[in-house]
Amino acid sequence: xxxxxxxxxxxxxxxxxxxxxxxxxxxxxxxxxxxxxxxxxxxxxxxxxxxxxxxxxxxxxxxxxxxxxxxxxxxxxxxxxxxxxxxxxxxxxxxxxxxxxxxxxxxxxxxxxxxxxxxxxxxxxxxxxxxxx
Length: 133
Fold this sequence. Notes:
eight-stranded antiparallel β-sheet
């Protein structure tokens, strides 16, 4: 058996399942994009929205104006597609960038916000090497 990064061990093949569950909705407001999620309402200010197009991250704030998380553009589902990804309280949420643009242009009123999760199908952590005798 050829050596790999773990030496003379083989890495058990794991099937990782990326899953997306509906977490809420996104809509346009006067001065912000509103994220209505199960855990509350959050805002991406229009002034911060401009930062996303230039490759920078933007802050996500709550009703009190306190920063709760951050947002950035990233290809998550496909390399050619851009998605708005935001992290709130350790959870990753995704909205299609095309849908975000359609909201800001007034073409649609709502877009689905999806929560991203990674599940291991086999139940064994993906990075654990298994020694063959």
